[in-house]
C-alpha cells in the first residue's frame, strides 16, 4: 500500500505526510522517512555537488518532497541505466511514491559521503534528503561488456570455445558453472586509491594451499597503489622481487577450463574487474609447458607432445649458441666434412660468427614482434613476405651464411611451440645469453650458462612453492 502525497498549491510540489502509517509505505519511502528522523546537520548534498562539480555527466535532480524535505536523486548519465531514470527528465510533476515505485526490487544499501562517491563512480544512483548525512544507494549500473567469445590469445583445439570477458561477475559465474560444489569459495577485496578495482580470489577450500592463500590475501590487503588496469599489472605488483625475476611466477589465461582444472589441483585464481585474463597461482616451471588439451587426449600422446615442447625449448635455447661455438671456437670438435661445409657457407661473409648470429637473431625478433603488433589481416602477409624477401636478400648480399639462416629459422619455429606467451618471451631473451657464452668460451660457455640457469631456477619460488617442482593435488584432494 502506498500513501500518495497531497499537492501543495503554494509551492506547486507534492508532499508526503509523515504519519505512523509510514510502515505501510514502500521500502524506499520507509528508508527516506528514517533518513528524515536521523537527518541532523548532514551535508551530503553539498559534499557530492562539490566533489563532482566539474563533471559534465553528473546529474543531481530534485524528484519531490518527503516529510517537508527535498528529495534528490544523483547519478552519472554515462554509467547508470538511463532507461530507469527517464522520470528525471520529465517536466510533468508526479507523485514521489509513484516515481519510486519503479525501483521496487532494486538492491538498496545506505552509505556516507565516501561510500556514495564510490557508488556513483561505479554506476549506481544515490537517493537522499537535503540535509541528511547518508543516502540510499540504488544499484542501477549499466554494464558495458562484450559477449562471450572464443579466446583471442590461446588457440582452442579441443574444449570449450568461450573465454572470459571484462565483467567480473560473468567470469566468476563461468567458474561456478563448471565447479558445482560448496567448497568453491570467493574472497573479494578492492585495490587502488583512485580506481578502487574489485578483485576476486577464488579457490577450492578442501584442496587449496592455506599458506599460499594467506600470503596472497595479505599481499592484496597491504597493496598501496594508485590503481591497476589489468591482471598482468597486478601480477607484477604481487612480486616484491620483480626486478630480480625473469621467469613468470603465475599463469595468465582467458580459458575457464584451464582455470577450473587448476582450481581442482589446489591452486587459486585471481580475477580483476575489467580484465579478460585470470591469474592462476602458484605456478611452477612445468606448468608453463602443459596445454589444457593435454587432459583431453590419450596419455601417451600427451607425453609425446610435452616431449616435443621441451625439445623445442632446448633447440631455441642452445642451437644458435652451438653454431657460434662450433664454427668459431670449438672447430676441432666437428667432423671435417661439417667444418668444410660451414666454411664454404660463410665464404664472403665480412662479419665474425658472433656478429652474424646476433644480427640474424635480432632481425627475426623484429619480424616476430611486427607480426604480433600488426593487425591480423596483414600481419601474416607482412611477416611471410618480409622474412622470405629479407632472408633471400641477406644471403645474396653475403651478409650471413646459408647455414645460419636455417638455424635461425629452426630457432624461431621452436619458439612458437611454447604454450605460454610469457614463457615464450623469456625463451627469446635467454638465447642471447647462451650465444654470448658460446662466443666467450665455446661449448664450455654454453654449459656454464645452462648451469647458472638451473641454479637460478632452483632458487625461485612461486608464492611459497619451489619453482622446479610439480604441484600435485594434496592428499585427499581431487584428481
UniProtKB/TrEMBL annotation:
Membrane-spanning ranges: 401-421, 433-457
Keyword rRNA processing: no
Keyword DNA repair found: no
GO biological process, one term: spore germination
Any single Gene Ontology cellular-component annotation: membrane
One Pfam family in the UniProt entry: GerA
Keywords noted in UniProt: Membrane, Transmembrane, Transmembrane helix
Domain of life, per lineage: Bacteria
Family stated for the protein in its record: Belongs to the GerABKA family.
Protein name: Spore germination protein
Biological source species: Paenibacillus herberti
Amino acid at each position: 500500500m502506498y500513501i500518495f502525497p497531497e499537492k501543495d498549491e503554494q509551492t506547486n510540489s507534492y508532499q508526503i505526510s509523515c504519519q505512523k502509517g509510514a510502515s505501510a509505505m514502500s521500502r524506499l519511502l520507509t528508508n527516506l522517512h528514517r533518513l528524515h528522523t536521523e537527518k541532523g546537520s548532514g551535508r551530503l548534498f553539498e559534499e557530492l555537488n562539490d566533489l563532482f562539480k566539474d563533471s559534465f555527466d553528473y546529474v543531481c535532480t530534485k524528484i519531490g518532497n518527503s516529510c517537508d524535505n527535498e528529495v534528490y536523486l544523483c547519478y552519472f548519465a554515462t554509467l547508470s541505466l538511463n532507461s530507469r531514470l527517464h522520470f528525471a527528465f520529465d517536466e510533468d510533476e508526479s507523485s514521489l511514491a509513484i516515481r519510486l515505485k519503479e525501483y521496487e526490487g532494486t538492491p538498496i544499501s545506505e552509505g556516507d559521503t565516501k561510500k556514495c562517491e564510490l557508488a556513483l563512480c561505479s554506476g549506481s544512483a544515490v537517493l537522499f534528503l537535503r540535509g541528511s548525512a547518508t543516502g540510499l544507494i540504488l544499484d542501477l549500473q549499466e554494464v558495458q561488456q562484450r559477449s562471450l567469445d572464443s579466446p583471442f590469445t590461446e588457440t582452442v583445439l579441443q574444449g570449450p570455445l568461450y573465454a572470459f570477458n571484462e565483467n567480473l561477475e560473468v567470469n566468476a559465474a563461468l567458474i561456478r558453472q563448471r565447479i558445482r560444489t560448496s567448497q568453491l569459495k570467493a574472497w573479494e577485496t578492492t585495490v587502488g586509491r583512485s580506481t578502487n578495482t574489485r578483485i576476486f580470489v577464488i579457490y577450492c577450500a578442501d584442496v587449496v594451499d592455506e599458506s599460499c592463500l594467506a600470503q596472497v590475501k595479505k599481499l592484496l590487503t597491504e597493496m598501496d597503489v594508485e590503481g591497476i588496469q589489468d591482471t598482468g599489472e597486478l601480477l607484477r605488483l604481487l612480486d616484491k622481487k620483480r626486478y630480480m625475476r625473469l621467469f613468470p611466477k603465475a599463469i595468465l589465461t582467458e580459458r575457464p577450463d584451464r582455470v577450473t582444472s587448476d582450481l581442482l589441483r589446489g591452486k587459486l585464481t585471481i580475477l580483476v574487474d575489467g580484465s579478460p585474463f585470470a591469474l592462476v597461482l602458484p605456478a611452477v616451471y612445468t606448468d608453463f609447458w602443459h596445454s589444457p588439451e593435454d587432459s583431453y587426449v590419450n596419455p601417451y600422446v600427451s607425453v609425446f607432445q610435452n616431449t616435443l615442447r621441451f625439445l623445442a625449448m632446448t633447440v631455441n635455447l642452445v642451437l644458435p649458441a652451438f653454431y657460434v661455438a662450433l664454427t668459431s671456437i670449438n672447430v676441432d670438435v666437428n667432423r671435417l666434412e661439417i667444418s668444410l661445409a660451414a666454411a664454404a657457407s660463410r665464404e664472403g661473409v665480412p662479419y665474425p660468427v658472433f656478429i652474424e648470429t646476433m644480427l640474424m637473431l635480432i632481425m627475426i625478433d623484429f619480424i616476430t614482434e611486427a607480426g604480433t603488433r600488426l593487425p591480423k589481416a596483414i600481419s601474416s602477409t607482412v611477416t611471410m613476405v618480409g622474412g622470405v624477401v629479407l632472408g633471400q636478400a641477406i644471403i645474396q648480399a653475403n651478409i650471413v651464411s646459408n647455414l645460419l639462416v636455417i638455424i635461425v629459422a629452426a630457432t624461431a619455429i621452436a619458439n612458437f611451440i611454447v604454450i605460454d606467451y610469457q614463457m615464450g618471451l623469456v625463451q627469446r631473451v635467454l638465447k642471447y645469453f647462451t650465444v654470448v657464452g658460446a662466443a666467450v668460451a665455446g661449448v664450455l660457455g654454453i654449459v656454464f650458462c645452462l648451469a647458472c640457469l638451473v641454479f637460478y631456477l632452483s632458487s625461485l619460488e612461486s608464492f611459497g612453492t619451489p619453482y622446479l617442482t610439480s604441484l600435485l593435488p594434496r592428499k585427499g584432494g581431487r584428481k
